[in-house]
Amino acid sequence: MADKSTMVIFSGDLDKAIASFIIATGSAAMGSDVTMFFTFWGLNILRKSEKVPAKKTFLENMFGRMMPRGPEQLGLSKMNMGGLGSKLMKRIMRKKNIATLQELMETAQDLGVKIIACSMSMDVLGITEAELIDGIEYAGVATYLAEADQAKLNLFI
Amino acid sequence: MNANLVVDAKGLSCPMPIVKAKKGMDTLESGQIMMLETTDKGSVNDFQGWVKQTGHELLNVQEDNGVFRFFVKKS
């Protein structure tokens, strides 16, 4: 049976998201079954870039407006400088022919990496299923723990 | 050395060479040989780890003008 890797993606920072997907695709390429569990700010990585109409309360609406929609809008954890740092980092990475976060996410799904969105934090942040990318699952902490218990590698990012 | 499959991962950086290697290997039968070309300096060490983990056999590594060629036999 294949080895298992599990990851909790709590952060919604661009640099940490890139690192997460490099490890996830790498692990899948090494033959492991990989599960990524997205919670809190990490959910923003999974948001579609376009606005999706949804019925929300005033506070949920505010949250939705203030948080980045998808990989293109994420900022760096350091030296973001109001988004300039993130733009510069993306330019440097393109120049050096390093895969973009979008490409890494597509590769991960292509390799069968399981992506799970935490339904409780979706509820807290007021994010609906329609706002997240296709091909993902929705679950809670028990699902993550059941997978993590069998995994040789488990990371919290 | 003759390869059944040639995979070009030149110019790509981590983790794409091993992703391409996995996809290439998935198309081969046991005992067949894949030749993979990379330019990423980290890939020399990466492929030692990749074959160790996947159980395939690294037959030969060549370097020619900054291009690394890995010959891997599918287990």
Strand numbers in spatial order across the main sheet of chain B: 1-2-4-3
- Helices of chain B, by number, come to 2
Briefly note the structural class of the backbone of chain A: alpha/beta
Strand content of chain B: 25-35%
Averaged pLDDT of chain B: 94
* Helical content band of chain A: 40-55%
Helix and strand element order of chain B:
EHEHEE
Enumerate the spans of chain A where pLDDT stays under 50 for 5 or more consecutive residues: none
Structure description:
The complex is a heterodimer of chains A (about 160) and B (about 80). By secondary structure, chain A is of the alpha/beta class. Chain A has one domain: Hypothetical Protein Ychn, Chain: A. Helices cover about 40% and strands about 15% of the residues of chain A. Chain A has helices at about 15-30, 60-65, 85-95, 100-110, 120-125, 140-150, and strands at about 5-10, 35-40, 115-120, 135-140, 155. In chain A, strands 4-3-2-1-5 form a 5-stranded parallel beta sheet, with helices on both faces. In chain A, helix 1 links the parallel strand 1 and strand 2 (about 35-40). The mean pLDDT of chain A is about 95. Chain B is an alpha+beta fold. Chain B has one domain: Translation Initiation Factor IF3. Helices cover about 30% and strands about 35% of the residues of chain B. Chain B contains 2 helices and 4 strands, in the order βαβαββ. Chain B has helices spanning about 15-25, 45-55, and strands spanning about 5-10, 35-40, 55-65, 65-75. Chain B has a 4-stranded mixed beta sheet with strand order 1-2-4-3, covered by helices on one side. The longest helix of chain B has 12 residues, at about 45-55. The radius of gyration of chain B is 11 Å and the shape is globular. Chains A and B meet through helix 1 of A and helix 1 and helix 2 of B.
